[in-house]
Structure prediction request, 224 residues.
Amino acid sequence: MSISGEDSLTRRSLYDVEVTDPASVLIDRSGLEKQDVAQITRLMQALAGMREAEERLSEASTRYMRLNRTDMRALHFLIASQNRGSLPTPGAIAQHLGISTASTTKLLDRLERAGHIRRETHPSDRRALLVRITPETHQAATATVGRQHARRFAVAARLTPDEREVVIRFLEDAATSLSVSDAPWAQDPGAAVEPGAAVQPGTAVQPGTAQEPGTGEHASREAD
Prediction:
């Protein structure tokens, strides 16, 4: 086996099943033709390319807005809420982000100091607060990050209805298959993992709900 730098893996080859699983330990592909495996590999590489593009966009947006990812998710939630004609409470923001009340207070303090939001007294409950994104931040986020994200809608619009149904079904099945809700190692890091058989293409997966990225303990630390 060569270990020279000349044979270093390319980004695309990292998602080639013949590279990641040459002995079919993870995936039983004995029933697939070579052209099918090659096409599936291209699909996995395309998904990886989209994830990388989303990661670069996320990094660019946090740099441009000078905020962290939890802050950006909070602003997105505020924009969506105001577009629907409502202003969320701090509690609603905490629930959406999956962080504690204390972390939410710190997040809102930070955003308010930077001029991104305003907290207002609830018109019918003087004890409650509502949170409003400032017009300047709303406009800046919409004209930059929002416009870039909107390009995906144009891509989907170029597909036929039947093509969109195929993509929807694939993405929904893929999201379900990636759920860690029934994976012992994800629920208890100390749990022993039983060696398993290779997964066969088309194997049914038990439905589950994966934790939303950016929520939970990690998000709480980030928000702090």
